[in-house]
Design goal:
The chain is an alpha+beta fold. The protein has a domain of 31 residues. Helices cover 44% and strands 14% of the residues. The mean pLDDT is 90.
Length: 64
């Protein structure tokens, strides 16, 4: 059983890496690409000293 969102994303990326996960402003993002982007963001946070369990805020524009 997949217990966390990050685990689900990794599982989905391994199972169907080329399948469409998101459509952002006309651009398709696959599950594989989304997984790589999430890893890159996690690495960036870690490089700034953020550790698992720390709280962070995200400021993003609205979209549907």
């Amino acid at each position: 059983m997949v217990s966390m969102k990050k685990d689900w994303l990794r599982w989905r990326a391994l199972a169907t890496p080329g399948r469409e996960a998101l459509l952002i402003e006309g651009r398709t993002v696959s599950y594989g690409e989304l997984d790589r982007l999430a890893d890159r963001q996690a690495g960036g946070l870690a490089a700034h000293g953020i550790q698992p369990g720390d709280r962070v805020a995200a400021l993003m524009g609205n979209s549907v």
